[in-house]
Amino acid sequence: MTKNASRERLLSWFRRPDGVAGDEETPTPGEALPRLRWEQICRRPDCRGRWVALHECTYDHRTGKATDGELVDVDDDLASLCNRVRDSHWKDCAILYCGETPSS
User: In the chain, where are the structural domains located?
Assistant: First the structure.
C-alpha cells in the first residue's frame, strides 16, 4: 500500500456519516480523535469482521471487553494493521477484532 493510499484510508475514518470529510489533515498525537463506543465501531460496515486499532482504549473492569476508544486504523489482515501501527506515530494502540455481528 502506498503512503498516499494509507493516508486516504485513515482520513476516511474522520468523515462524517454523510460522507463529508472532517479535517483535511491526518490527526497526530495530541490532537483529538473521535471517541467511539465499541458498539458504534462494530456497527460500522467498514469495521465489521475486521481488525481495528484503537488509541486510548478503555475496558469494562468486570468483563474485560473494550468499551470505547479512538479509532486509528482498520484492516482485514492483522499483520498489515500491526505493521502500519508500528510504523506510524500512534503508539500503545489496542488491536481488537470486530466481529461480524454488532454484539461481538
Answer: 3-13+34-98
Matching residue, cell 492483522: 78
Q: What is the pLDDT of residues 8-34, one digit of tens each?
A: 555 555 554 444 444 444 455 555 578
In the chain, DSSP assigns E strands to: 35-37, 50-59, 66-75, 94-98
Residue type, 92: D
Question: What whole-number distance in Å separates Cα of residue 28 and Cα of residue 70?
Answer: 12
Contact 26, 11 (CB under 8 A): yes
Q: Spell out the residues 6+ positions from residue 80 whose beta carbon is closer than 8 angstroms to its own.
A: 1
Per-residue pLDDT reduced to its tens digit, 41-65: 999 999 999 999 999 999 999 999 9
